Amino acid sequence: MCGRYTLKTDPKVLAMDFNVAAAAMNSETIGNLDLPIVPITQMSGTALNPNFNVAPTHEVPAVCKRDGVNTLAVFSWGLVPHWAKDRAIGNRMINARVETVLEKPSFRTAVNKRRCIVPADGWYEWQKTGTQKQPYFCSAADESVLGFAGMYEHWSAPDGTSLWSLTIMTTQARAELAHIHDRMPVLVTPELRNEWLSDGPAPIAAVLDAAHSTPWLQVWPVSSAVGNVRNNHEHLTDQIEV
Q1: Known active-site residue 2
Q2: Tens digit of pLDDT for each residue in 147-180?
Q3: Which fold has domain 4-237?
Q4: What is the Cα–Cα distance from 108 to 113, expressed in whole angstroms?
Q5: What span, in angstroms and rounded, lies between the C-alpha atoms of 152 and 166?
Q6: Catalytic-residue membership of 125
C-alpha cells in the first residue's frame, strides 16, 4: 500500500515538471465545477508547503486535466465516491488496487473519467519482521519528482458543501522492493503523463509496463519517528543503520 509520502519540491517547479498550463497557473476558474485550483500567486497554502510526512486526510496537491489543460489542484487524500452518505468512507479509500480498479463501484467511473497524478519526492513503506515494523524510504535514484497514478471524485455533503478527494493506485511491488512490502504506488513515467491525464479508457497496461521496466528506484531504512504523523521534518528521510 501507500500510506505515507513526502513532497518538498517547490510548487513552481512542480508546475513546470508536470506542464501545468499558464492559464491554470493564474486562474481559479478552470472548468465548470468548483475544482480547487491553486493559482501560482497563491502557492503558499498548507497543502503546498514542504511535507515530509503526508498522511491520509491531509490536503494534497495533484495534477489533473480540466478543459484540456493541466491544472494543479488540492484534494483530500482518501476518495469519497459521489454516492457516499458521508465522507468517513474516505478513510478506507486511500489506495485502489490496480488489479480491480475497473471493477470496483467506488473507482470504475473515476478511473476512466477523472484521473490525476499525485507528485511526490518519495514514499514510506514498512517492513514487518515478527512483531517489529521497520520503515523504509523509497525514491527515484536521480531524486526526480515521482508521479503517482491517482483518480479523484467530487462529493456534495448534505449541508451543500463540496469535497474533492483522491486515491492513489497501487500495484505489485517491483523486485527490489518486494522484500519490504508486496505493494507500491503505480508510477506514471513522464512520457505517459499526458495520456494518463487525458479522457478515455485508462492506459493501465502501458503505465505499468513503463514503470516496472524503469530502473530508477532507491530505498533505505529510516527512523520509526515517521510512524507518528505529528512528526514532520526533513530528517525523517535520513538513512539509519539497522
Answers
A1: yes
A2: 999 999 999 888 888 889 999 999 999 988 999 9
A3: hypothetical protein yedk fold (3.90.1680)
A4: 9
A5: 4
A6: yes
Coil, helix or strand at residue 161: coil
Q: How far is CA 15 from the centre of its chain?
A: 15
Distances in Å between the Cα of 181 and the Cα atoms of 2, 77, 100, 170, 175 are 10, 21, 19, 12, 10
**Catalytic hit among 2, 64, 116, 138:** 2
pTM of the full structure: 0.91
Q: Cβ neighbours of residue 208 under 8 Å, at least 6 residues apart?
A: 98, 171, 186
Q: How far is residue 27's CA from residue 69's CA, in Å, rounded to a whole number?
A: 12
Main-chain dihedrals φ then ψ at residue 186, nearest 5 degrees: -75, 120
Catalytic residue among 59, 99, 103, 125: 125
